[in-house]
Amino acid sequence: MRWRDLFHFALHALAVYRLRSFLTLLGIAIGIAAVILLTTIGEGVHNYVLNEFAKFGTNIVKITPGRQSAHVGMPSTARDLTLDDAAALARLPYVSNVNAVALGNAEIRANGRVRRSSVMGVGPTMHTLYSVGVAAGRFLDEADGGRDARALAVLGSTLKDELFGISNAVGARVEIGGERYRVIGVLQSKGQLLHVDIDDVIYVPTSRAMALYNRSGADHIKLAYDVHADVGQVLSVIRQTLISRHGREDFTLTTQEEMISALLDILRIVTSAISALGGISLIVGAVGIATIMTIAVAEHTSEIGLMVALGARRRTILGLFLAEAVALAALGGLLGLVIGVGLAWLAGVLVPALPVSTPWIFVLAAEFVAILIGLASGVLPARRAARLNVIDALRTE
Predict the structure, then answer these.
(1) Neighbour count for residue 378 (Cβ, 10 Å)
(2) Residue 133 near residue 191, CB atoms below 8 Å
(3) CA 150 → CA 13, 76, 91, 144, distances in Å?
(4) Along the 397 residues of the chain, how does pLDDT read in single tens digits?
């Protein structure tokens, strides 16, 4: 029997029992739609995370005080990361940019307005580390840093708009924690990093921020290295330098790539766990196809016997019922693809902040999986039909 005849036979068999066929393929459709929707969102978030971190470069190392250990909750005896540590790291080979960072939060008063915002103590090269341009004035320079840094501040674009609106902020005075600072610059908008507005920040010299929050060390040190340098060699030089200064390894080195990898690992675990729920629908659909094909064999026993009596081969009978099962699953898969892609598009329209990206190679793979499910589900009923005894089958009429 030709493939075209098998195809027409399968579609005719499905059309005879429309409602039953539709309810059966619905299980496959729901499973495929769920997997497509979740994969689309997961791929979108994956690309979003990579793009967000790419804004700030991937050749960055974050150094934090305290060594990661399995002894959670034990008191830390780690030494602070100091400005002298940052200065020592800046002299290392392959290192192009070093910034000791002290973070905090405070009420910022200026121009008769008050806004609670993040305060970031940074070094004079922070804006080049994160590739942020200066929109007005200038950024901090070497003369503004050090232990006796002057009370100077640079505003992020969002904070400037909130405090000064369209007025010029350069040269104005702002009050941070009861201390007055002179604004020397405004940064260009950099956008958000994982939905955190990094433009809603006021930047001051690291030593001023440490004094403001009564700290003896920085929260962390950010370091950029030559993109052509070997990462392992760079980390080794950093580790040796800090060990020689601290006497032991009481710090943690984290590369930007490791941070990205950690986020993506979490995302993959969550996506896989939720996709497993969609897999349950596929199993239900497979059971439904197997059940419906078993019923079909019972309903067509006499026809099968007549076909064999007229000379039809056993493999032809096998092919007829396998074709019906595959057609059922393929149609369910196509319906699921339409629903899944449609829901993903709708989610992107209704929630613009939600990143969606449909991996079309996965769409084709999902349809292939649906066909395999139909094939596997129809094997046993089709074999049963092909092995029917001709005499017994004719007697069922």
Answers:
(1) 29
(2) no
(3) 85, 32, 24, 6
(4) 555 655 665 566 666 667 777 877 787 788 788 878 877 877 777 777 767 666 666 688 889 988 765 444 444 556 888 889 998 999 998 888 898 999 999 999 998 899 999 999 998 888 888 778 899 999 988 776 667 788 999 999 999 999 999 899 999 999 998 899 999 999 988 776 655 677 899 999 998 999 898 888 899 998 888 888 888 898 999 999 999 998 888 888 988 778 777 777 777 777 677 667 667 767 777 777 777 767 666 655 555 555 555 556 666 666 676 777 777 778 888 888 888 888 888 888 887 767 777 777 777 877 787 778 777 776 666 666 656 555 554 455 5
Tokens at 85, concatenated: 């540590």
Rg (CA), the chain: 33
SS3 144: helix
Name which of 225, 222, 220, 193 is nearest 59 in CA terms: 225
Q: Burial level of 286, CB count in 10 A (0-12/13-18/19+)?
A: buried
Yes or no: say if 184 and 137 are a contact pair by the CB < 8 Å rule: yes
Token look-up 């922070």 returns 126
Q: Are strands 196-197 and 134-137 parallel, antiparallel or unpaired?
A: unpaired
Q: Which among 219, 207, 53 has a CA at the least distance from the CA of 140?
A: 207
Query: What's the one-letter identity of residue 277?
Result: L
Q: Which residues contact 278 (CB under 8 A, 6 or more apart)?
A: 30, 31, 32, 33, 34, 35, 38
What is the Cα–Cα distance from 186 to 202, expressed in whole angstroms?
A: 9
Tell me whether strands 60-65 and 220-225 are parallel, antiparallel or unpaired: antiparallel
Beta strands 152-155 and 201-205, pairing class: antiparallel
Distance CA 297, CA 320 (A): 11
Q: Given phi > 0 = left and psi -120 to 50 = alpha, else beta, which region is 66?
A: left
Residue 49: Cβ within 10 Å count: 18
Q: Which residues is 218 bridged to in the sheet?
A: 81
Dmax (CA) of the chain: 104
Which residues contact residue 226 at a Cβ distance below 8 angstroms, ignoring those fewer than 6 apart?
59, 94, 95, 96
3-state secondary structure of 170: coil
φ, ψ for residue 229 (rounded to 5)? Answer: -80, 155
Residue whose token pair is 């405070």: 106
